[in-house]
Amino acid sequence: MRILLTNDDGIEAAGLIELAHALYKKGHELLVSAPDSNMSCVSHSLTLRRPLHAKKTVIAGLEGVRAYAVDGTPSDCVRLALGNFGFDAELIVSGINDAPNLGTDAVYSGTVSAAIEALMVGKPAVAVAKDTFTLEHMDDAAAYFADVLPELMRFFDRGPGVLSVNVPSTVREEYRGVKVAPLALQSYDLRFDEKEEDGRTAYYVRKGKLTVCADDEDTDEKHMRDGFVVITPLTYDITDRDRLTLAKRLFEKGSSI
Description:
By secondary structure, the chain is of the alpha/beta class. The protein has one domain: Stationary-phase Survival Protein Sure Homolog, Chain: A (3-Layer(aba) Sandwich), CATH 3.40.1210.10. Helices cover 24% and strands 23% of the residues. The chain has 6 helices and 11 strands. The strands form 2 sheets. The chain has a 9-stranded mixed β-sheet, with helices on both faces. It has a two-stranded antiparallel sheet with strand order 9-10. It is globular, with a radius of gyration of 20 Å. The mean pLDDT is 94.
């Protein structure tokens, strides 16, 4: 299969390199298009006010695989690869992120946004992440994903879509199974830490999450904490369909607006 591989941690990230090797061993044809530096948490941003540049590079041990380091965002990388690099990808894989894309954190994730960008141009995509902010067990996560990819592809039999896959940070033999679950709510402190620097107030994001998943939740975070591989289907449509009828009644015919 022809697979475009990207991420948001940068082209030198261990997760991308491990995944490239695992997919290549399975006989897939790869093209790598990834940011030349860390672009975590840039969400779905595009570079519009300057030109992009892409530098050909080599991934150690995969000298025959075309790879480009792009001075842009993950979404830029997807568009360049599909539009300019002459690669007709059958699947876009984004990751492996070296931290989980759980809950509403997916909104901020450049890894997830690269997959969403692929769907927006009609391509199936999978965003892959590993739990915890460490590189431990990245090889297990990559080998597991490469092995189960044929099963994941069944999801796209009815057309393009996006799957977000989060893998536990443990040895593969300890994965407890697979759960399909919706996103959890992730809430963070709104207040920044303040520090006076060079005559100005500098604001630093506070670390740590305010929300804690309950024991009876059916969410991606809860199942990940219990040791399961968690899969969540995603899409770019952010329409509030539950209240679409209400909005029509309030603002269409007969409204004072």
